[in-house]
């Protein structure tokens, strides 16, 4: 079988080492090399590879940002390339995700590539691959802490939004709308996944489809049947679910 592969690593030596080893395998068709996250997103979307070797630690847009921009469910089979310490590697192993730790040997690379081939040949590759990628992302995000910037696509570019600029967030199926004071961005991520990456001291889920920036709350008013209306500093009025009592109390205490 022919496997289309893209290699993403900002370190030329590491990237060329992977490319050189891939070229020894007759099953591999190298369709792209990327030295940064922006070009990686574009290449994955344009080339639709079967397999990606993805470096986690890159400046500006890192490997996690690349997956968040593409969407875990839309990512090809992925081999994570990392220099993380052993406890992080154990998280990869527990979630059955392919990985390479730099520096790696030829034998270790061969084992990783074989596992990737086995996964690609399985009938349920798509579902299991997306689940595994999401699991390792969740583990890495817990290690990295809460988001300070969110990568969003503007035309053909990837730009960053500081979380303090976010007024509120709306769920829209498997995407979210990030509302700023003067514009709206769409991000291919679920509300639950994004909510877990936001600092709960700064953001609160007031409805199953709405997350707000608590620092941008201007007023909270009772409505009817136990509901409340939250007015943001932009004038936007958002309904708070009556089941979000703890959120309501926290917001009130912050406004006092």
UniProtKB/TrEMBL annotation:
<feature type="domain" description="Response regulatory">
    <location>
        <begin position="4"/>
        <end position="117"/>
    </location>
</feature>
<dbReference type="InterPro" id="IPR046947">
    <property type="entry name" value="LytR-like"/>
</dbReference>
<dbReference type="Pfam" id="PF00072">
    <property type="entry name" value="Response_reg"/>
</dbReference>
<dbReference type="Pfam" id="PF04397">
    <property type="entry name" value="LytTR"/>
</dbReference>
<dbReference type="InterPro" id="IPR001789">
    <property type="entry name" value="Sig_transdc_resp-reg_receiver"/>
</dbReference>
<keyword id="KW-0902">Two-component regulatory system</keyword>
<feature type="modified residue" description="4-aspartylphosphate">
    <location>
        <position position="55"/>
    </location>
</feature>
<dbReference type="InterPro" id="IPR007492">
    <property type="entry name" value="LytTR_DNA-bd_dom"/>
</dbReference>
<keyword id="KW-0597">Phosphoprotein</keyword>
<dbReference type="GO" id="GO:0003677">
    <property type="term" value="F:DNA binding"/>
</dbReference>
<protein>
    <submittedName>
        <fullName>LytTR family two component transcriptional regulator</fullName>
    </submittedName>
</protein>
<dbReference type="InterPro" id="IPR011006">
    <property type="entry name" value="CheY-like_superfamily"/>
</dbReference>
<dbReference type="GO" id="GO:0000156">
    <property type="term" value="F:phosphorelay response regulator activity"/>
</dbReference>
<feature type="domain" description="HTH LytTR-type">
    <location>
        <begin position="150"/>
        <end position="254"/>
    </location>
</feature>
């Amino acid at each position: 079988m022919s496997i289309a592969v893209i290699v993403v690593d900002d370190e030329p030596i590491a990237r060329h080492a992977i490319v050189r080893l891939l070229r020894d395998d007759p099953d591999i068709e190298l369709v792209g090399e990327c030295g940064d996250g922006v070009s990686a997103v574009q290449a994955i979307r344009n080339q639709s590879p079967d397999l990606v070797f993805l470096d986690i630690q890159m400046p500006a847009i890192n490997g996690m940002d690349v997956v968040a921009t593409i969407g875990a469910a839309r990512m090809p089979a992925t081999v994570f390339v990392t220099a993380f310490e052993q406890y992080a590697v154990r998280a990869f192993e527990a979630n059955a995700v392919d990985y390479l730790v730099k520096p790696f040997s030829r034998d270790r690379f061969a084992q990783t590539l074989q596992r990737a081939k086995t996964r690609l040949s399985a009938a349920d590759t798509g579902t299991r691959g997306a689940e595994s990628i999401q699991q390792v992302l969740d583990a890495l995000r817990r290690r990295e802490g809460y988001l300070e910037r969110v990568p969003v696509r503007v035309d053909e570019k990837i730009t960053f939004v500081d979380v303090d600029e976010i007024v509120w967030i709306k769920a829209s199926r498997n995407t979210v709308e990030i509302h700023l004071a003067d514009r709206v961005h769409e991000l291919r991520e679920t509300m639950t996944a994004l909510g877990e990456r936001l600092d709960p001291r700064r953001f609160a889920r007031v409805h199953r489809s709405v997350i707000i920036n608590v620092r941008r709350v201007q007023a909270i008013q009772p409505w009817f049947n136990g509901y409340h209306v939250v007015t943001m500093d932009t004038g936007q009025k958002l309904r708070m679910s009556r089941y979000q009592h703890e959120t309501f109390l926290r917001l009130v205490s912050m406004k006092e």
